[in-house]
């Protein structure tokens, strides 16, 4: 990338070069050159560019260079960075460019020469290695969506655990040092009149320990309430219902509905949280997800049943052999001959060559419940800091208080500790863990294709009884030939005669 930008700055690359030549209305179509002129075909080391995208990339690179060459921060900005333990600041533009700068560890910052050669003393992965997709990263898309809800707010989130049970090596929420990385991102939009489009997303990453320490300092400023009180459980959850901050560090990254399902259900009843079911039609499930198939064996079996089944089987095999007498010679395997039909392999040998890991999983469909915070519930309310207050215990929820954290996607929730005893009839919200659908575990056909066979079909408008390539067929079977099989015909006549004679007695 650096060499690419250097070559462009030196005008050594022609960004107007296109993959195919432009077609004109007057040009005649040539079948042999319909993919372009042979003289303009690209070689192994050639290239072609999207001129507009390259210009936008170069513009973003030049515009962001002064801000990431060094950090010109005020004393107040450095104080906040130290209090929250900010370690990296970054920007990702809509053209796909990502820049980052480590504040307190210069060994992780890359040095680039005028020739485009980059180097750094740190051997491990840095921000660019962990997040190389720019506009496809979760924090980028979440910041853009949050801007549509509140243009002045930012998105704060942590790494979420992988809930799919089929994945063995799941990434951990915590870092190698035991702390947790928190990402805060904010979207910047181009605006032209009433129209706007995302230009970039800026943000910082800081550690959980500094964030939690600052949270306790803010919540302990009054004597009436404190999150250090053993009477309350304080949580900060994001707009998807996952815990970002909690007294128990192990709860960070978990779904709040698993910790306090009755509180989340109360949120849903008040339209504070909404949920929707999405489906993954390319999922994998363990064989344990298959239901137990009931046995089809007879309840009472006697020796007469076995003898009857044997006679039926012998009779069926006899008829199959007699009616297939014409093809006897074609299905005989001759020992000691190298030429002729190859004996098919034994099924046990085929199954033995399969990978045992493939048999432990099967394709299925997953249903996943997703949640979204209805931020307009708080933003459209009258008052400086609207909150949801339930001072008394309800039939299906404990006492709790909730308020939107200003200019963020976070919700502060305080739950009074119990013990609380609720009825079994109290409704609970569905978990976010993927669940196999019943159709995909009881029917091998994909559930979203089961109804396709019931759709009305349009009749063919023409008569299709002939294909142009039928004349090229040289090998034909005998299934289309109408002929009489003498042995089968004689045997059928004899059986019909004796059967009729027995019935007339």
UniProtKB/TrEMBL annotation:
It holds the Pfam family VGCC_alpha2. One of its GO terms (molecular function) is voltage-gated calcium channel activity. GO terms for cellular component: voltage-gated calcium channel complex. Residues 26-472 form the Voltage-dependent calcium channel alpha-2/delta subunit conserved region domain. It comes from the Eukaryota. InterPro entries: Ca_channel_alpha-2/delta, VDCC_a2/dsu. PANTHER family: STOLID, ISOFORM H, VOLTAGE-DEPENDENT CALCIUM CHANNEL SUBUNIT ALPHA-2/DELTA-RELATED. This is Dihydropyridine-sensitive l-type calcium channel. It comes from Papilio xuthus (Asian swallowtail butterfly). The lineage of its organism: Eukaryota, Metazoa, Ecdysozoa, Arthropoda, Hexapoda.
